[in-house]
Amino acid sequence: MCGIVGYIGRLDAAPLLLEGLSRLEHRGYDSAGVAVLAPSGLKVARRAGRVRDLQEAMPRRFGGRAGIGHTRWATHGPATDANAHPHVDATGRVAVVHNGILDNAAALRAELTADGVELASDTDTEVVAHLIGRSGAETLEEKVAEALARIDGTYGLAVVHADVPDRIVVARHGSPLIIGVGDHEMHVASDLAALVRYTTTVAHLEDGEIATVTAAGFTTYRADLTHAPRAATEVDVDPSSYDVDGDDHMHRELLDQPAAAERVLRGRLDERFGTAHLGGLNLEPRETRAIRRVKVLGCGSAFYVGQMGASLVEELARIPADAEAASEFRYRNPVIEPDTLYVAVSQSGETIDTLLAVQEIRRKGGRVVGLVNVVGSAIAREVDGGIYLHAGPEVAVASTKALTTMYLGFVLLALQLGRVRDLSVAEGKRLVAGLQALPGLVQQVLDDSDALVDVAHRLAAADSLFFVGRVRGYPVAREGAQKFKEVTYRHAEAYPTSELKHGPLALVSPDVPTVAIVPADELTERNVAALHEISARGGPLVVVTHAEVDLGELERGACTRIDVPRSERELDPILMTIPLQLLALHAATHLGLDVDKPRNLAKSVTVE
Ligand code: AGP
């Protein structure tokens, strides 16, 4: 949520800052701005709208070899030019960009106003610029440290001051801040994506740290400005994999799923023993046998995949398992059990609610592993072990390929846990074979998807929809509803199919379609019976199912079936989720909406 960039070196800063911002725009896209230390003083340009709007509005002469930039997702105050970052102090000599939320901003705003300061925005960030600008401390680092001592909340921030144009001062508490080391030039960013094109030698600031960044290098300090030496290290990433230029990200990411599935499985399947090898979990067989419970934590779609994954772990490894929204977890003061394996799931590895849940577990002595996509992200660095998902960069706000790889991560986890416990070698081999065939089946679903376009257009016409499924199909329905509402802005609600008659059926009508997940399994008959109850009330149906499922009379009415290929039953959630992603994409495109940057949302949710 929000993106920060900074540059200091030999080159003109503004074009580099704008380029970095365009790479972070998926993180927040309601306004953007840059501040450059020009020879004549501090220059600031900011604007509501996208980075390209800022670029068009920038004055031609904006020269300077150091500067900071920001792309915003509004927390305090609407998306206006005045609320866009960077924020400046009353003298116009200090500029600040900030990610996170300051909890005591209201009190500080009141204090500054009472002192005669005229606040120019509704934001929490502006107070930081004023606190720094008004500080009587000698150095910029001291001014920043003094200001930070007055604020509560989370921040990743970057500060420039016209009086010391040879440096950018950065600080972190709860929001990521990375320093990239170049050749007589340095970069600053909230996300590797913004700087990996220039350097892969980076240092991650830790919470509570401050750093001075000059063209020649960087120095890190603790909050009290005592030295906290930190070396930059090489990150093992392919910079070209961050080249995510152009549009159409959701569509491209959706189509990348067969390859992403191959990547997450590569080198992790053991055909001989019918198991998976996940060395990164750091779990010895003896420790695995001692696990009495598995608790999965994630937010939004990662939570829904966590639900799918938990039921899989329970089924294959016969360990009681459940999933909980990470955003709620720590607020109920959970009991952390020593024989529970906690699993944190996150594409970005930055979601603050998931990160705080991880920290709560570790603080209480629990063991937590991660299923994370972004290498070196905060959650990946915080957990006791984990599985990287290798989905590749995911830019579209609506997650697709990351979810497929998360689910496959759970299959691998369940397989490894199961095979150390009571899952037979024959069952393990059955699943390994199923996994090997899966990328091909995912490709088949994508190749056969033309007929979905019409169905999506019909669904786009409805103001309100139900998504239903049972047991393994219920989190699939939840994810389907989530995807649909995220990008189409239609009201889409998910229920267990069995719950409809306990209330929601009252809303079923010819104007309210239901998308139902009906795999060929032990619940098919019960599912079809429930669909009759919907059909009898005039509710149109879209049924995601297998070819052998007989929908009988239903097909004579307002019912469209979408058949997906058969696989092992444990893999149905993936093959049944993909048509739901396509329905959401085509419906939103039909409605003329920007599927990559849906309103009110951002890719990584780094504020509570
Ligand atoms: C997915 O389509 C959503 N944009 C959202 O629910 C997302 O899954 C959630 O915010 C968690 O993100 P994470 O995987 O990066 O932690």
Summarize the structure.
This protein has 608 residues and is an alpha/beta fold.
Overview of this protein structure:
The chain has 608 residues and is an alpha/beta fold. The longest helix is centred in the C-terminal third of the chain and has 23 residues, at 425-447. The mean pLDDT is 94. Strand 17 (293-298), helix 10 and strand 18 form a beta-alpha-beta unit. It starts with a strand and ends in an 18-residue tail after the last helix. Helix 10 packs parallel to helix 14 (401-420), helix 10 runs antiparallel to helix 17 and helix 16 (452-460) packs across helix 19. The strands form 5 sheets. The chain has an 8-stranded antiparallel β-sheet with strand order 3-2-4-1-10-9-11-14. It has a 6-stranded antiparallel β-sheet with strand order 5-6-7-8-12-13, with helices on one face. A 5-stranded parallel β-sheet has the order 18-17-19-20-21, with helices on both faces. It has 19 helices and 26 strands. The radius of gyration is 26 Å and the shape is globular. Bound molecules: 2-deoxy-2-amino glucitol-6-phosphate (AGP).
Supply database-style keywords:
eight-stranded antiparallel β-sheet, six-stranded antiparallel β-sheet, binds 2-deoxy-2-amino glucitol-6-phosphate
Please write out the topology.
Layout: E1 3-8, H1 13-24, E2 31-38, E3 41-48, H2 51-57, E4 66-72, E5 87-88, E6 94-99, H3 105-114, H4 125-134, H5 140-150, E7 155-161, E8 168-173, E9 178-181, E10 186-189, H6 192-195, E11 201-204, E12 209-214, E13 217-221, E14 233-234, H7 249-255, H8 257-265, E15 269-270, E16 275-276, H9 285-289, E17 293-298, H10 301-317, E18 321-325, H11 326-329, E19 340-346, H12 352-363, E20 367-372, H13 378-382, E21 385-388, H14 401-420, H15 425-447, H16 452-460, E22 464-469, H17 473-488, E23 491-496, E24 514-518, H18 524-535, E25 541-545, E26 559-563, H19 572-590
Parallel strand pairs: 17-18, 17-19, 19-20, 20-21, 22-23, 22-24, 24-25, 25-26
Antiparallel strand pairs: 1-4, 1-10, 2-3, 2-4, 5-6, 6-7, 7-8, 8-12, 9-10, 9-11, 11-14, 12-13, 15-16
Helix pairs in contact: 4-5, 8-14, 8-15, 10-14, 10-17, 14-15, 15-19, 16-19, 17-19
2-deoxy-2-amino glucitol-6-phosphate binds at residues 299-302, 346-348, 351, 354, 397-399, 486, 604-605.
